[in-house]
Write a structure and sequence with these properties.
With 435 residues, the protein is of the alpha/beta class. It has 2 domains: 33-376, TIM Barrel (Alpha-Beta Barrel), CATH 3.20.20.150; 381-434, no CATH class. The protein is 46% helix and 10% strand. It is built from 16 helices and 12 strands. The chain has helices at 39-43, 49-54, 76-93, 102-105, 112-131, 160-179, 202-223, 247-256, 269-274, 279-288, 315-327, 349-376, 378-386, 393-398, 403-413, 424-434, and strands at 33-34, 37-38, 45-48, 97-101, 136-141, 184-187, 193-194, 228-231, 241-242, 263-268, 292-296, 336-338. The strands form 3 sheets. Strands 3-4-5-6-8-10-11-12 form an 8-stranded parallel beta barrel, surrounded by 5 helices. A two-stranded antiparallel ribbon has the order 1-2. Strand 5, helix 6 (160-179) and strand 6 (184-187) form a beta-alpha-beta unit. The longest helix is centred in the last third of the chain and has 28 residues, at 349-376. The relative contact order is 0.11. Keywords: Carbohydrate metabolism, Cytoplasm, Isomerase, Magnesium, Metal-binding, Xylose metabolism. Its main location: cytoplasm. Homotetramer. Its cofactor is Mg(2+).
């Protein structure tokens, strides 16, 4: 039975680039075959439960602006209504996947036992919904940053009881993810950092975080979970100094604690910007180390400097991100999760649907441009040309040599190189041809 929340809104279909229908896809055609696979299989779109259904429209200076039938989110009846609405929207969009935190789908009971009971109840209910829907679970995760118990961190908390509560919470969420057939499990350490070194033993906190993640990996194998374990970098906000600052920092952490072959990265556009990077930079860093897992697609407001989690609207940015994903071979268990939310003034149910239509279309346009660039090969040819000198036997041998031998060669051959153009503007113009 329909909840009536999206009454009057049609099922969204592909109508092509000439369509003026605001509730149709103009660029996202799930069945279009690109590089040998359907677009849906390449992009693997997911709807984020937290921003789409759990967020009430508050910001640091004001309270809720949304009035939803499942508000307040404090009992199981409304949690089930929220799930009903969620799956109605998944079906309208034809969304292949969704993602959740435990706190998004069940009301907090104030105790682990209570949370465990409501988590099991709601995931049983969601499992029943999934039996009648094509939408699958891309990943689950635990919210260990919102409740006051997490204000000093989760696995990095100075209180061992909080560490224990975190361990039990992650176990319960991994069990729930496994039960629902989730294809990944994500850990984002929103409070795994510090405000001041005056009260922080950084070495101990990092060791505890490393041990915690090893426990997660051990439990994955114990229960036979075949999905990927992913960690998500973020440089700041809410913690002033977060230990998972960016892709490179996370990779160093994973190597230090022997996890480089067990854990990959879930990268977010907005977090990349906060770290002072482009999204394609973070993707390229992860891909270069074989640690690219999945992405959270969104954007920030470049004027505010805040993690605003807006839906993507910049095709060139999206195209370059997907270009590096395709270069890395595309997703395996990962996908494109819209970690994005409508604005506080976008209060209608139609806004929730339209925002995802726009995001999916922007991603489709960017993806098609990325695939066309990869097929054309212009960027790869330019790279090959720029580094061609390293194909010479003398150049390759130099990497196995030593400073004294190289110096003797420079003197003997009177090596005095002239700079060569990087051709950045030519390559930027090349990209513009596709986007």
């Amino acid at each position: 039975m329909s909840t009536g929340f999206f009454e009057g809104l049609p099922t969204v279909g592909y109508e092509g680039s000439d369509s003026t229908n605001p509730f149709a896809f103009r660029h996202y055609n799930p069945d279009e075959v690109i590089l040998g696979k359907r677009m849906e299989e390449h992009l693997r779109f997911a709807v984020a439960y937290w921003h789409t259904f759990a967020w009430e429209g508050g910001d640091p200076f004001g309270g809720s602006t949304f009035v939803r039938p499942w508000h307040p989110q404090d009992d199981m009846g409304r949690a089930k209504m929220k799930a009903d609405v969620a799956f109605e929207m998944f079906d309208l969009l034809g969304a292949p996947y969704f993602c959740w935190h435990d706190a998004d789908i069940r009301p907090d009971q104030g105790s682990f036992q209570g949370n465990l009971e409501t988590l099991n109840e709601i995931t049983d209910y969601i499992g029943e919904k999934m039996e009648n829907s094509r939408t699958k679970l891309l990943w689950g995760t635990a919210n260990m940053f919102s409740h006051r118990r997490w204000m000093g961190g989760a696995s990095t908390n100075p209180d061992p009881d909080v560490f224990a509560f975190a361990a039990a919470t992650v176990k319960s969420c991994m069990d729930a993810t496994h039960k629902l057939g989730g294809e990944n499990y994500v850990l984002w350490g929103g409070r795994e950092g510090y405000e001041t070194l005056l009260n922080t033993d950084m070495g101990a906190e990092l060791d505890h975080m490393g041990r915690f993640l090893n426990m997660v990996v051990d439990y994955k194998h114990k229960i036979g979970f075949e999905g990927a374990i992913l960690v998500e970098p973020k440089p700041q906000e809410p913690s002033k100094h977060q230990y998972d600052y960016d892709a490179a920092t996370c990779i160093g952490f994973l190597r230090k604690y022997g996890l480089e072959n067990e854990v990959k990265l879930n990268l977010e556009q907005g977090h990349a910007i906060l770290a002072g990077h482009s999204f394609e930079h973070e993707i390229a860093v992860a891909a270069s180390e074989g640690m690219l897992g999945s992405i959270d697609m969104n954007r920030n407001d470049y004027q505010s400097g805040w993690d605003t989690d807006q839906f993507p609207n910049n095709v060139p940015e999206v195209a370059l991100a997907y270009y590096h994903i395709l270069k890395a071979g595309g997703y395996t268990t990962g996908g494109t999760n819209f970690d994005a939310k409508v604005r506080r003034q976008s209060i209608d149910p139609a806004d929730l649907v339209a925002s995802h239509i726009g995001g999916m279309d922007i991603c489709a346009r960017g993806f098609k441009a990325a695939a066309a660039m990869l097929e054309d090969g212009g960027l790869e040819e330019a790279l090959k040309d720029r580094y061609a000198g390293w194909e010479a036997p003398e150049a390759k041998g130099m990497l196995e040599s030593d400073l004294a031998t190289i110096t003797a060669r420079v003197l003997e051959q009177n090596i005095n190189p002239e700079p060569k153009s990087g051709k950045q503007e030519i390559l930027e113009n090349y990209v513009s041809r596709f986007v």
